[in-house]
Design goal:
The complex is a heterotrimer of chains A (247), B (164) and C (567).
Chain A: H1 8-43, H2 45-51, H3 57-83, H4 86-117, E1 134-135, E2 138-139, E3 141-144, E4 157-161, E5 167-170, H5 175-207, H6 217-242
Antiparallel strand pairs in A: 1-2, 3-4, 4-5
Helix pairs in contact in A: 1-2, 1-5, 1-6, 3-4, 3-6, 4-5, 5-6
Chain B: H1 22-42, H2 50-70, H3 78-102, E1 107-108, E2 115-116, H4 138-141
Helix pairs in contact in B: 1-2
Chain C: H1 33-37, H2 42-70, H3 81-116, H4 125-147, H5 161-164, H6 169-196, H7 209-241, H8 254-288, H9 295-308, H10 324-336, H11 338-352, H12 361-384, H13 386-392, H14 396-426, E1 428-429, H15 432-458, H16 473-503, E2 505-506, H17 548-553
Antiparallel strand pairs in C: 1-2
Helix pairs in contact in C: 2-3, 2-4, 2-16, 3-6, 3-7, 3-8, 3-14, 4-6, 6-7, 7-8, 7-9, 8-9, 8-11, 8-12, 8-14, 9-11, 11-12, 12-14, 12-15, 14-15, 15-16
Classes of the chains: A mainly alpha (247), B mainly alpha (164), C mainly alpha (567).
Chain lengths: 247, 164, 567
């Protein structure tokens, strides 16, 4: 226990409160992006509807389940620490970290597909420098440039095959959807990486045998942070992948 | 580590927490997966404007499960819940008061960036007309946005205010 | 003796050099440079913050003097237009982000908040130290950006100019981003400290108003600063990748940046002023030697300001092209802020009424605060009125209003607080005569600077302009001369405080005869703040309950203070 606390309970409660307040700040930080999302979705519902078909529901749902499972193992890690099963804590923490890795790998595939189609934010939307028209021997997308002006920095029309196999013509303003998509999921991915680092540190402490049923605060706080990452994704997934008119 | 300096607490000052069973956590996980499947299934049906509401409702149910049980809010100090919910309250203030500006302005026509009247869908005064440009005209159409601050023909309506 | 009561169990958790005898005076508990660099003592961290904040104030002040000097006469006086733009941007950025936001909470708050609730330290001492180093990091990044060409956008970094301009906006925003983290950590720390570290008997109702102010400030820091973080990240992404969120050509909206920015920055002006009010409540109570009138109301008005501060940011955007509906809504909401502000001003006045006033230098600042803040607050109502604002926006009227609240409010309270607590912090007694001379120079100088600005602003002199019409010359000249008087006052005050360090007589435990908790302990406090776990049996303003000994020498902790715990 640290010198300025009177009891371990006081220290535990203070740490928990600190973490919860920090979680509140994280929610408000993401809140800026949710605000941007809400506004553009309200202003341009058709664009959002059209563009969201380029996100793969199945990959998104798989990632959701992966994160939910990692959340479960994080909660179980805390439970093992509470009852003093150090080896179980180790196993659960490792599972959580591996799941985080799987999440990032799936995300990587999703991102690279967007890059191939030229579905990027802002100036890069439809820019031929990023886009490959052919992927795996199959034509997937074309950036429509009227003039031969390859140096234009304006977003372009994009004709590409969406995730349900339909060919779609996306207007330049669809770049806003992808701007928000990349900002939100990018910031979330950053949090996944930070969360992984925290869990690795907790794992190291656990292997060193720091924790006991009387003192497991870092496991608890690390798991809280990880649940926050999960919580944000729980909202990101439907808002980006699912909302809109179905085919 | 222990000391008997506890003041104002009825107990011994040690850490006491509610410990749920592993089976319980697995049950919560099961419920979360079911809700995930539900939200994906539901997305294949069109409920019009309710799409978003339903999706957010299911997401909130999932989020509440995570917060209440995985994050132990159910058995935690009340103030932690207050801190958590306060974040959402202020987020709501943020979004609503921002939206009362951007949502109340003349709407921007999605494809070409021109300004249209929210009520009628016609080109708004001061804004460029929303023409049906073909792909070939894109290069000219894309960058433009409406001129601003032109006097409004409908005093009750907002003038087009999309600013460059 | 008292040390027996202290649970020193955590010794092993600390770096050896931060650890010392808890009963030794905090400056002597450990020695050497490492004992400062790695200290976990909130009092030393507060002093380190104070040093940095004072340096920032000096730097920001020099920029202000240069800007004023340039405006002394029409055309070019000393610097060209580009440099002028950079100087006023730097004056704003340095003063806001480096000085005024951390000034009261991180410096004085760090030092006194734990003492005033009878705690041994803040809840997270290591986080506290981390927040200081993050602050230093932010300062370093900001300095780099100044060297790399500086910024001429104004401290608000409005798009689209901040996206297009060629100078070092990115490093400047990154610096501010980092400083925001420091601010968040301080806020989290204080909030948790107030919740979980209060001594027995220090109920919410008895909590000193300074602590209430810090608590309200912490709430704002926690809830608003993250939005600044995301705003600045988006601005950087906009510059790096052109994501278009703020770019109308790509479908974005530049006014959205202003919404994002002011969702932080309007509450942030309450981060700046609420601590000033918090100090002022202490000053008024102590020097009127009375229980403060409406303690509960003042405490609640701090919280009220914290919450209302989140509802009114749109009044910065009245002429930015916001929808008419939103302008009306925000204008109406803005007037609500006058209620908690009024509650405070009236309660302070009621406290002074029939009080036994001691005209010491801190009280002069306390009185000046009420006077100047009232002017600043009322002119804020002019600006909140939609139709008047259209005329006054971007004129010197806004500049004068802002400085009346920030300088006439927070800086005055900060100086008052410094003089008030200097004996407790350093154990040295300053020269009251010099302090009062300094005060009068500050007071007269300040008004000389800004009253002409009100006048020329209402006559249409736009702010941030490098040059001006002949009819404004006299106002600018008076204003510039005022800035010199103000500078003399500030240097006199700084000299008075520094002189006390080497020439001052040892200060008594309770030199002002205050009933506040922080005066009950040693001067300067020992490392653990109190020798024994204090138990508060009366409120911090209960002059009718405080004994004569308490009002002269505080608690005699060695012999067992009143209400001492017997375990």
């Amino acid at each position: 226990m640290q010198h300025h606390f009177d009891t371990p309970e006081q220290q535990f409660n203070a740490s928990k409160l600190g973490m919860w307040v920090f979680i509140a700040t994280e929610i408000l930080m993401f809140g800026g992006l949710f605000c941007a999302y809400a506004i553009w979705r309200a202003m341009e519902p058709n664009i959002f509807d059209q563009a969201h078909h380029f996100l793969n529901k199945i990959l998104g749902a798989s990632n959701t389940v992966v994160l939910l499972f990692s959340s479960l193992t994080a909660a179980l890690a805390v439970r093992s620490a509470q009852v003093g099963k150090r080896n179980m804590t180790t196993i659960y923490l490792v599972t959580t970290i591996v799941c985080a890795g799987i999440f990032l790998v799936i995300k990587w595939f999703e991102y690279s597909h967007k890059f191939h189609l030229g579905l990027l934010p802002g100036h890069c939307f439809g820019h031929p420098w990023f886009s490959a028209t052919v992927q795996n021997g199959q034509e997937v997308g074309t950036c429509l440039r009227v003039h031969a002006d390859q140096t234009s920095s304006m977003p372009q029309w994009v004709r590409a095959i969406d995730e349900s196999g339909h060919e779609q013509l996306l207007p330049p303003r669809a770049n806003m959807f992808f701007a928000i998509y990349f900002c939100m999921t990018g910031l979330h991915a950053l949090h996944v990486i930070v969360g992984m680092s925290i869990l690795v540190w907790v794992l190291y402490k656990n292997l060193k045998g720091t924790f006991s049923p009387a003192y497991f605060t870092p496991v608890d706080l690390g798991a809280l942070y990880w649940h926050l990452v999960d919580l944000v994704w729980i909202y990101l997934f439907p808002l980006l992948y699912l909302v809109g008119k179905p085919e | 580590m222990s000391d008997a300096h506890a003041h104002g607490h009825a107990d011994d000052g040690a850490v006491h927490v509610h410990i749920a069973s592993s089976r319980f956590y697995w049950g919560i996980f099961g419920a979360l997966v079911l809700l995930t499947i539900a939200t994906v299934k539901v997305s294949y049906y069109d409920f019009g404007s309710m799409n978003t509401v339903i999706a957010l409702l299911i997401a909130t149910m999932k989020g509440s499960l995570v917060a209440a049980f995985f994050m132990h809010l159910r058995h935690d100090k009340l103030f932690n819940t207050i801190a958590f919910l306060a974040a959402f309250l202020f987020l709501a203030i943020f979004i609503l008061l921002t939206y009362d500006d951007l949502g109340q302005r003349a709407r921007v026509e999605p494809d070409y960036g021109s300004v249209v009247d929210r009520e009628t869908g016609l080109a708004a005064p001061g804004g460029a007309p929303a023409t049906s440009a073909t792909v070939d005209e894109v290069e000219e159409e894309a960058p433009h946005a409406a001129g601003s601050a032109a006097p409004s023909a409908h005093p009750a309506e907002k003038p087009a205010e999309k600013k460059e | 003796m008292a040390a027996v009561d202290m649970p020193h169990v955590g010794a092993g958790h600390h770096a050896a050099d931060s650890h010392g005898d808890p009963d030794a005076m905090y400056l002597k508990a450990s020695h050497g440079i490492r004992s400062w660099l790695f200290t976990l003592d909130h009092k030393r961290i507060g002093l380190m913050y104070l040093t940095m904040v004072a340096l920032a104030f000096l730097v920001g002040g020099v920029f202000a003097l240069l800007v004023r000097l340039e405006l002394f006469s029409r055309g070019k006086t000393i610097i060209d237009g580009e440099t002028y733009n950079r100087f006023f941007t730097l004056h704003g950025a340095v003063m806001v982000f480096l000085f005024i936001i951390p000034s009261v909470p991180a410096a004085l708050g760090n030092f006194f908040l734990p003492i005033m609730i009878g705690a041994k330290d803040v809840a997270f001492p290591r986080l506290n130290l981390l927040s200081f180093y993050i602050y230093l990091c932010g300062v370093a990044i900001l300095l780099t950006s100044i060297i790399m060409g500086s910024v001429d956008t104004g401290w608000t970094f409005y798009t689209p100019y901040s996206v297009q301009t060629t100078n070092s906006v990115i490093s400047m925003t990154l610096g501010v981003f980092v400083l925001g983290f420091s601010s968040i950590l301080t806020g989290v720390n204080f909030l948790v400290t107030v919740h979980s570290m209060r001594a027995p008997g220090c109920t919410w109702g008895r909590m000193p108003l300074f602590v209430w102010g810090m608590y309200a400030t912490a709430l704002i820091q926690i809830l608003a600063t993250p939005v600044l973080a995301i705003t600045l990240l988006l601005l950087c992404a906009e510059r790096f990748f052109g994501i278009g969120v703020f770019d109308p050509k790509l479908g974005g909206d530049p006014v959205l940046f202003q919404h994002f920015f002011w969702f932080y920055s309007h509450p942030a002006v309450y981060i700046m002023i609420v601590p000033g009010m918090a100090i002022n409540s202490e000053l008024i109570a102590t020097f009127s030697r009375r229980a403060i009138f409406g303690q509960f109301a003042i405490a609640m008005s701090s919280l009220g300001l914290a919450i209302l501060g989140f509802l009114v940011w749109g009044h910065h955007l009245f002429v930015a092209g916001m929808s008419e509906f939103a302008t009306m809504l925000f204008s109406a909401l803005t007037f609500l802020v006058a209620i908690p502000s009024g509650v405070k001003v009236f309660n302070w006045t009621a406290t002074i009424y029939k009080g036994s006033i001691l005209w010491a230098s801190p009280m002069l600042y306390g009185m000046a605060f009420i006077f100047l803040f009232t002017i600043g607050g009322l002119t804020g109502l002019f600006l909140g009125t939609l139709s008047v604002d259209v005329h006054l926006t971007d004129t010197y009227f806004v500049v004068a209003h802002f400085h009346y609240v920030m300088m006439g409010g927070t800086v005055i309270a900060f100086l008052g607080g410094l003089l008030y607590w200097w004996p407790k912090m350093t154990g040295k007694w300053h020269d009251e005569f010099k302090a009062k001379i300094g005060f009068w120079f500050v007071f007269v100088g300040f008004n000389t600077v800004f009253i002409p600005q009100f006048i020329m602003g209402s006559r249409g002199m736009p702010r941030r302009y490098y040059d001006y019409l002949p009819q404004f010359e006299i106002f600018h000249r008076v204003s510039t001369v005022g800035s010199w008087i103000l500078a003399i006052g500030l240097f006199t005050t700084a000299y008075t405080l520094l002189e006390a360090l080497w020439k001052g007589k040892p200060a008594p435990r309770n030199p002002w005869g205050s009933a506040g908790y922080e005066w009950m302990t040693d001067t300067p406090p020992c490392l653990a703040n109190f020798h024994k776990q204090p138990v508060f049996t009366r409120g911090p303003y209960d002059y009718h309950l405080a004994t004569a000994e308490e009002l002269s020498t505080g608690w005699d902790e060695v012999g067992g203070e009143p209400g001492s715990k017997k375990d």
